[in-house]
Each structure stands twice: as C-alpha cells, then as structure tokens.
Amino acid sequence: MADGCFSDSADFPDLGESAETLGLDAREGTSDARFAVGKDGVRAIAATGDGKVEFVGFERHTLALVTSSLGYPAYYPVPALGEPAPIKAMLMDLDGTTVHSEQFWIWIIEQSTASLLDDAKFELEDADVAHVSGHSVSEHLQYCIAKYCPDKSLEEARRYYFEHTDREMAAILDGKGRPGAFTPAPGIKEFLLELKAMGVKLGLVTSGLFEKAYPEILDVFKTLGMGNPEDFYDSIITAGTAVGRGKAGTMGELPPKPHPWLYAESLTIGLGMKFEERNATLGIEDSGAGICSLRLAGIRSVGLNDGNIDDSGTGGLCQFRIDSFEEILAEIKALH
C-alpha cells in the first residue's frame, strides 16, 4: 500500500520514489515538449501505460499533465495524500465498479465506429479497450476516429453514438434491451447498506453523461430493490448533459476523468467536505482514468482488480487493490 509520503530525494515528490516503483513508463520529455529531464529543474518524467497522464518531478513537487485527443491538455499539481484518517466518505465510480456495464458501452462505441465505416462487421481490437473505457465519450470516439477512420468528424461520430444510445436505452427501460447490459456488481447492495449504517457519506461519480448514466443507476437500484438512488446517495455527480445542435448542454466532455474535477466536486460541493478532509475519504475505481482522477484530487484510491487498471499502467497509483467489496470493508473498519 502506498502512503503518499516520500523523501526529498524522490523523483516524484508526493507521488512516488521513481517511475519503476510506480509502474510508470520513464520518459525524457513530455509529449507537449514543455519539459525535459535535466532542464528547468526537472528530475524525472514518466507516463501511465496508456499515455493519458504524464508526471513531471521537480525537487519538491510534481506536476501532472493530462493529455487530450481533443486538443486541450492541462497541468495539475499533485497533492500529498497525508496520513489515513477514519473514513467519513466513500466515493464510487459507476461503470465497472457499481454496475457491470463496461462491455455494453464499449459495444456502443464499436457500433458507432461501425456506422462511421459503414461496416456492420467492424470489431474493436483488444488493444483498444483501455482507450474506449473510463474516459469521456468524445475521447473514446476521437481515439477510434484517429485509428480507424481519420476522414470522419467527431460531430458525425457523436451523432451515431447518441442514435445507438437512445435506441438501446429506450429498449432497456422497456424491458427489451440487450441482455446483461446493466448488472449490479457482486456484493454492492450489502456494501452500500453497511457503509450507510456506519454513517459514511456516499457519493456516486461517473464520467458518463447524465442521459446514459442515470438510467443505469435507476435500473440497478430497481434490480436491487433499493428504491430511489437520489434518496440513498448523498451526492450523484455525472459528466453533465450532452450538447448538440438545437440542444443546450452542460460542460462535461472536456473535464471528466482523468481530470480531478468530478471527484473534487463530489467531495467539496456534493458532500460538503473541505479539501483538508480528503484524507478521511476513499474512492473506488476500476479504470486507470478514475485512479488518476482520484489521485489528482488528493483522494486515496482503491483499485478493483477486474478493470483496466493494469492495462492502463496505473496500478502503482492505487493505495489498495481489491478483488471484492468485503476486502475494503475490512480496511475501513480497521481505521474506525
């Protein structure tokens, strides 16, 4: 388990001793050519396996560069995690963590790409998975455009995406959708109820747009017999509503995971906790994008082993790795 406290000799202060110990890929310079090892006080540079986040180590601080296929990268200071405290809040991802739906949404991306190519037999490759899950819809689609159909536009891809999504979501809510699209994660009901009984604040945080994410959680709560999710959770944060011609939207395609904002908003606005209380918070994620988002928000992360954390090269950024919710309950109780 990482503790977030490192000596001044660390290559990446407040993050880790070296690229090797963090499981990151060492680099000589950042992808935007802004920083290079040995220049301007830079000690080391490393990137996650999927290249979505790059870390720049200085003598006493570390910066994180969140790259962007849409042309808007951003730098963030990496905050120290500090000492663990009794847990006051639990923040949880939706797809792949609370509900097993990743394969469904990857299939929607696949169908959207097939429509762009006018090829009903098109299939994504295994190597694509880390790039079409955990990030925003537009990031997923832009990746597919760049790889498979560079002559197509993001606007066209998004149109196909929402056509497929609207059709499938309507069918699911009508009880006629793709079998197994939304399946509650094993043990999730017992886990949530036990946390609730302990007085832990609960936040649901997803990079999914509202129109695709909210029907998911409604469907899952209906399956579990848990009533209205808005009455159960203390905070539900999505990536907003989609913007389009003739339709007003909210900003949600550029700042989702691995940017820190969704988790930061859930903690401070949704749950009403101060930044200084982040050490009393845990976040559970199955994706590399989510793990990076939590880390950049200064929140200790729990990585589920059945997601894409290993494929994305972010395992070294987790404070815990678990196979089941029962394991993290034991850690929570040990802190109380």
From TrEMBL:
An example molecular function term from Gene Ontology annotations: hydrolase activity
Record key words, sorted: Hydrolase
Pfam families: HAD_2
Source superkingdom: Bacteria
InterPro entries: HAD-like_sf, HAD_2, HAD_sf, PGP-like_dom2
Record protein name field: HAD family hydrolase
Native species: Haloferula chungangensis
